[in-house]
Class I SAM-dependent methyltransferase (Rhizobium lentis), 266 residues
Amino acid sequence: MPSSFHVESADGYERLMGRWSRTLAPMLIDFAGLAEGDRVIDVGCGTGSLTFTLAQRPGLREIAAIDFSPVFVEAAKRANSDPRITIQQADACALPFEDDCFDRAMALLVLHFVPEAGKAVAEMARVVRSGGVVAAAVWDHYGGMSGMRMMWDTVVMLDEDALPLRRKYCFQPMMRPGEMKQTFIDQGLADVEETSLLIRMDYRSFDDYWQPIAAGEGPLGKYVAGLETTKRTAVDAAVRAAYEAGEPDGPRSFASVAWACRGRVV
């Protein structure tokens, strides 16, 4: 089942979100837990933020990574030098692995882009042994992504056509409080816990913040790339003004919150 995330390039994704995924990855790993000799699958590995962070933890026996996007898979394969890691193109809703072959399954910033996220959770549970752990994290787009919400809220003031896009962004699957927890429970996982993880997204300048979007990366980038010239100029200027907030251009820091959930396979 395809992802709803819009990919222009692996490098563009790294500037837009990959750098922040790497910051979040250790927090999800700590929440999920690891044990000596674990076999772990990273579902929706992207460019490898979670995969390569897992590889820094000693004692793991195997790290399997899959992603639906061949662009991401190619980039992650190029970056890999660890023989414990295997990376392949696959669907999160139809994992190409036998039952009970992993100790833990993790999905970092993935489930909100899977149209039928429950199927992905069920597949993660299927490939994990009894007593193993399934864990995932997704951004809280509505209440926890101040830097990205600033963009969307600015854009809709200039273009009412962006209103349904903002709604879709804010209420993607798994983003409402308790939604991911209930999905884990519905898929038969036990001892399900949900929490929130906080990082800060630190930008050097407006260009550092806006350039990946301006280049067409991600959902907002796809919208911006389709604007006619006059409206595009107005959007660029308005978002810059929101970023600067009356002060000279320079570094800015935005709090960013993810929902995280884990459960035990029965």
Summary: DSSP finds ten helices and seven strands in the chain. The first helix runs from residue 10 to 32. The CA atoms of residues 143 and 257 lie 8 Å apart.
